[in-house]
Specification:
The structure is a homodimer of 407-residue chains.
Chain A: E1 3-8, H1 16-32, E2 35-40, H2 46-57, H3 63-87, E3 92-95, H4 97-100, E4 102-104, E5 113-116, H5 119-126, E6 130-134, E7 137-139, E8 145-147, H6 152-163, E9 168-173, E10 194-196, H7 197-205, H8 213-222, E11 226-230, E12 238-241, E13 254-258, E14 261-270, H9 275-285, E15 290-295, E16 302-310, H10 314-328, E17 332-336, E18 339-345, H11 355-365, E19 372-376, E20 379-385, H12 389-399
Parallel strand pairs in A: 1-2, 1-9, 2-6, 3-6, 9-11, 10-12
Antiparallel strand pairs in A: 4-5, 7-8, 11-12, 13-18, 14-16, 14-17, 15-16, 18-20, 19-20
Helix pairs in contact in A: 1-3, 2-3, 6-8, 7-8, 9-10, 11-12
């Protein structure tokens, strides 16, 4: 028996006509696949509209109540899609995160999935039904409603695919697949036929919007083959699979960028054990994801610590970093929103030295100054001025000839 | 310790400014009342907007999915109100019907409350919190989301007040109280200071929109004092209390009307036992509320059965009545949407004969033909042509001098 989880994002269910279109695609799938589970996001701009409402009611709404509010978006789209499927003559049933039993921790607005109970879904599938699940939402063991953060519906889909031992998880979105760079910035960006979980994970972490990093991590851990394809056109899309399924590895697969980070510097921190632990421990408690971290060479037993965070977390970071700077007797804090992070991703980097040098040279040749550097075995990230962001992406894409297929 | 349940309807939470206004009223209440539980409806036109979305997706959406869809409206407003209360410095927590444990039967879109679990609400009240509960929604023992039908938030409020042994249940709405007739039809309609549960129940059943009949029934059964007042102005409103608390009983308390019913006639039905049981049994199974029922005198072993239903149920009734007419070999069916039901309510009718005669005479004097009559000990209802509806209400209000206080 074949079983596939299909996820349709917000742009795919943007309005009533698009919901009907999704229903038709699901109905077509149901003819060739025995069991179909569909995960949906909120309709188009619903989440933004709800955020706006909350913003007009409260300057800092409690995160628990934000989850109560935001989780309604997916509940609306799942019900409408189930109706549209029934209208096409299919037997369909919608389920909330609570009904599926998508158990999460208590980290409101950024909850992590702890367990997915598949029993009820399997029961419904056995009745021949298409099961439509609200993405993005879960429930704590106390029955509190949580949400998984932006893009959380991808994670819902992959987690369900893993729990159901699905053949694969299909992510339908408004782009045709995963590209060597954002096609809006780079005209000759090329769609990748396949890419490894590890590379996709680095791409997601460094700013590729097509998939949320947690969903890729989940897919890798449970070895759920993922495919990203367009909800509007036919086409094979991009398969994200384990590395051993990819024969010819590209040295560099893609250039990614993230223009939504800010750089925070705590200056003149006493250079003694426990200082960094205190700072980043407090940020973790405040549920702030810290990305790159750099600590300068110590001078006179004092040092500067710089790190990047999402701009949306900057208010929380100001409070925490400011308090800690006071406690530590630091010289001060600095917050810089005008940065861009540009990254080079490629599984082949492991065995091909010199890629980093090529990257730094390319940026230098284009008069782009590097402010921070961070590396992993298959990734190099540089922070540059925001104004240089687009140029950096284009220059790197050209230098590494990403428009040409290497396989 | 004082404990009050306050319910705010859709017009009271019509937009962000009104939600903030409700939060201020709740905050003021919290100063004089130890424990406040707030029940909210969906924001303004949310329910209509969701109904419209569903209508564009499906001609006859499954009721289970309608409940999934509609229950989101109250979840949005409860979260926003909790945020607004926190913004005012109160400690507040919102809860869904499921979290409160408002257990209902499985009658989707018209579910009935079976049990209200108050434990979690009491826990939160003990922490000094204002508890904001989503009205209109419940959950079955299987975890399926249900809704209680239009006006169901009143029932939620009263059921919670009963379960919590509240001092009273305050219904805040867009009118100043319960009137002797709809003030939009009758210029000198008078606000009642108090009215008995029984009279209010008859008023609700016969078309007064201010309270849903089930909420009044619930209040009567559990003896929960109810008060209806404006969410926009101060003022005492109308108290709905048990009859023995009202000393001077008016003979006629109010005239009500319902312009949203339709008359159905099944003609030439075999006059034998079980026919009516079959018809109304099938309608009950289809979850259709039948109001008045009239069976004509039998001629040649055949009879006509007429009854009224809500216009919104007419499609369902057409299917059921048509099928049964075929099975019974009836002569045909007739559906008439152009009717008005006008009713006279008064606890004093029990001891004052002649009220019915006065009503019929008043209608006749105004050239209004009566098509159906139905009575209870404290109510007389007449079905007339829709075009005569407004005139009938005005004539009866004038004839029985309802603009004059009798106490």
């Amino acid at each position: 028996m074949s079983l596939v989880v299909q996820k349709f994002g917000g742009t795919s269910v943007g309005d009533v006509e698009k919901i009907k279109n999704v229903a038709r695609r699901v109905a077509a799938s149901k003819k060739r696949i025995d069991h179909v589970v569909v995960v949906v996001s909120a309709l188009g701009d619903t989440t933004d509209r709800l955020l706006d409402l909350a913003g007009r009611v409260s300057a800092s709404p409690p995160e628990r109540e934000m989850d109560m509010l935001l989780s309604t978006g997916e509940q609306v789209s799942m019900a409408l899609l189930a109706m549209a499927l029934e209208e096409l003559g299919l037997d369909a049933v919608s389920m909330t995160g609570q009904q599926v039993e998508i158990l999460t921790d208590t980290g409101h607005t950024k909850a992590k999935i702890r367990h997915v109970g598949a029993d009820r879904v399997i029961q419904e599938l056995r009745k021949g039904r298409v099961v439509v699940v609200a993405g993005f939402q879960g429930v704590t063991s106390e029955g509190e409603i949580t949400t998984l953060g932006r893009g959380g519906s991808d994670t819902t889909a992959v987690a369900l695919a893993a729990a159901l031992h699905a053949d694969c998880c299909e992510i339908y979105t408004d782009v045709d697949g995963v590209f060597t760079a954002d096609p809006r910035l780079v005209a000759d960006a090329r769609k990748l036929a396949r890419i490894s979980f590890h590379e996709m994970l680095e791409m997601a972490v460094t700013g590729a919007r097509v998939l949320q990093s947690r969903s890729v991590e989940y897919a890798r851990n449970y070895n759920v083959p993922l495919v990203v394809r367009s909800s509007f056109h036919e086409g094979e899309g991009t398969w994200i699979v384990s590395e051993d399924e990819i024969m010819e590895k590209a040295i560099v697969s893609a250039v990614t960028h993230d223009f939504d980070e800010a750089k925070v510097t705590v200056m003149g921190v006493p250079d003694r054990p426990g200082v960094a632990a205190g700072l980043f421990g407090s940020l973790a408690e405040a549920n702030v994801n810290v990305d790159m971290i750099i600590q300068n060479v110590s001078e006179k037993a004092r040092t500067d610590i710089s790190f990047t965070v999402s701009k949306s977390d900057l208010d929380k970071v100001r409070t925490v970093a400011g308090r800690l700077a006071d406690e530590l007797g630091a010289a001060g804090t600095d917050f810089d929103s005008e940065i861009a992070k540009v990254s080079l991703i490629g599984a082949g980097m492991r065995t091909h030295p010199g890629i980093a040098a090529g990257m730094f040279r390319t940026l230098a040749d284009n008069d782009i100054n590097i402010e921070m550097i961070s590396t992993s075995p298959i990734k190099i990230s540089c922070v540059v001025r925001r104004a240089d962001g687009e140029n950096a992406v284009r220059a790197l894409h050209e230098h590494f000839h990403l428009e040409v297929e290497t396989e």
